[in-house]
Design brief:
Largest interface: A-B, 25 and 30 residues
CATH topology of the largest domain in chain B: Rossmann fold
Number of strands of chain B: 14
Shape of chain A: elongated
Largest sheet of chain A: none
Shape of chain B: elongated
Distance between the termini of chain B: 40 Å
Radius of gyration of chain A: 20 Å
CATH architecture of the largest domain in chain B: 3-Layer(aba) Sandwich
CATH superfamily of the largest domain in chain B: P-loop containing nucleotide triphosphate hydrolases
Structural class of chain B: alpha/beta
Helix content of chain A: over 70%
Structural class of chain A: mainly alpha
Number of strands of chain A: 0
Number of helices of chain A: 11
Number of domains of chain B: 2
Order of helices and strands of chain A: HHHHHHHHHHH
Oligomer: heterodimer
Amino acid sequence: MSTLRVIVRRELLRLFGAPTAWVVLGALQFLSAYLFFIHLEDFLLQQESLRAAGGTVGLSAYIIPRFFMPLSGLLLFIAPLLSMNLIAGERSGGTLRLLLSAPVSAVVIVLGKYLATLCLLTLALILVALMPLILGFWVAIDPGALLLAILGTWLCAALGLALGLFFSALAGHPGIAAVAAFTVLIILWLVGQVEGTELTATTRFISLPHHLQAFYSGLLDTRDLAYFAIAIALCLAAGAKQLAGRRESP
Amino acid sequence: MDTPPLIKTTRLSRSFGSLAAVREVDFSVRRGEILGLLGVNGAGKSTTMDMLCGVLAPSAGSITIGGFDLQTQARQAKRLIGYLPERPPVYPELTVREYLQFCAHLRGLAKAPAAAACGRVLTQFGLDEVAGRLIGNLSKGYQQRVGLAQALVHDPSVVVLDEPTVGLDPVQLQGVRDLIVEASKQRAVVLSTHILPEVTAICDRVLILHAGRVAHQSPVSALMNAARSLTLRCAQPPDIEALRAVPGVTGVAPGAEGRAILDYEPHTNPAPAVARLAVERGWDVLELHAGTSLEQIFVELTYSADAADPP
């Protein structure tokens, strides 16, 4: 059995063996159902006035950004909670020595833990995405736009997780890892969102909502894809380097 | 027969910021040998062991395990290592069997060999009846045994045990010592302890670390010869000068409760002469026995190291 598979399996068992995963799945489903139905109702209420004004805003265009943008914010809130334990938990539990003394590279440890947790978040996202998908039985929704929105949200969650994992490799305690990850994610979320200010090139480049916007308006821009891919790869590489290089206080 | 050592360290050093935890430590361990690492708390034992197992990177110096450099050929070297840190690295939410299987897989064993290896160590460490229980619910002694089993599940050539007998009751203690001796027959074992009799009971060689440096390194038998002593306790206070004059006696020191501790030259035994003297002088012997004062040697060595090299 490859060691990557061993680590992924172990992490999945840990996640689903404890209440954490089930609470996350349940809470996310509940909150997103609430969000979804609020916006669905809003749409039904405003449909009359929109039609009277001669506008033709479709359901997809109305509901996708309104539903998925807060959903990605919610996932960014959950991701550091799921990732904070990945390495800092092993460190405080004394089991990191087991992993570091085994013939497994730091990259495999980091990647294994990341992939397992990403599986959980992917499952959560699929369950949530069922709600707008089910609407398709009754009304015409744009499947491309919906898939793109799901992809954007998934990338956003994946980024939150990678950042959380990096801080988990850095911190001695899971709580510190979570707080540090929240701080950075909140900065990425809020930067360039101050009313009345123009986005400069830098803030535009690092702003998370700016890169998500395109996914939610049905546009696939490779620059946005690259933003997420690079950020995730950087976080994971830094996490592995942290684990392999310093080895100071296991 | 001269076999190449399985563990070899060369000028091994590690600092944490400005604190030099381990300084230029050289030693080697061959197959079939148990090396005891002795030292007071903070002497650098655990840091040395972490480096031996690739958990910590040395600041300077090198380690080879079975001929593989631990820094540049980490994967091959680590395959040969079994490590029990001071705190058993167990997952409380796993059962003993699940945990040992995970450890075996982690060290690269395939499914069938891993299951066989688990069965072997479960029996070897008397864990069969708790195999299905969660580790978190086991007593400290059992957790320690699970930790030992994990260090040996992949049949490593090199076993590193950081205070393996801490927290065990006397019966378990003897059992674990027997297991370590048994395991050492085909392996190189490094164990740390601050229980001195443990070193004399199971180790072949002893290395005393003090303030990160090697303060003493020798076969245990040599240390035992050096540490040979007689303890005398009498109803009347004995005449120290008369004791000093007994042939073979090299020194007399006061011990607890009015005892006199006599050091003597190797390969001699002044006990009969001391007994005769005590009877002649009418000291009324309450106690006279030969024993080793490893503690004394230990204290002397660490103190002399302090004097030679203030930290």
